[in-house]
Amino acid sequence: MVSKRCKIAVRDVLNKLGLHFMPIELGEVEIMEELTDLQKDKLKEALQITGLELMDDNRAILIEKTKVVIIEMIHHTDEFLRVNYSDYISNKLEQNYIQLSKLFSEVQGTTIEQFIILHKIERIKELIIYDELNITEIARKMNYSSVAHLSSQFKKMTGLSPSHFKQLKNKRRKALEEIGV
Known about the structure:
Helices cover 60% and strands 0% of the residues. It is an all-alpha fold. It folds into 2 domains: 4-49, no CATH class; 58-178, Homeodomain-like (Arc Repressor Mutant, subunit A), CATH 1.10.10.60. Helix 3 crosses helix 4, helix 3 packs across helix 5 (97-108) and helix 6 packs across helix 8 (147-158).
């Protein structure tokens, strides 16, 4: 669950199945009762219909939590992060970053760093479209060392400079759920 729409969909599924749960957080929900195999199957089916899945494998759960931390860090935080992303993720998940990074790459087929870059580029697109910040402010907000670094990474990932992207009439963006999949 990486968006508010996902949270709403999960809440609706759980309510329809008559399950009791704690408030839903992005990426996880705690169900109050022990599920029978039949309830678990119904829950899996209902979630799949909405495009979501039930995760009960510890490795998959840790990967999902990592994705949620990254998404929150990039898309839902307005404060400037003054720490390394690796330190932030490691502290937030209380996990060794090297082991987490290895697991992420093994399961996802991409690195955490690449996943972060993909999300940063989508966030930069969003900020360019909103047109509330100039490119220098966007670079600072997105934790780039310089405008040149942001521009070079943006061009490498999209094939366009930020200013050229801003001029496009049809600005293509991806849904959060589709980034890095």
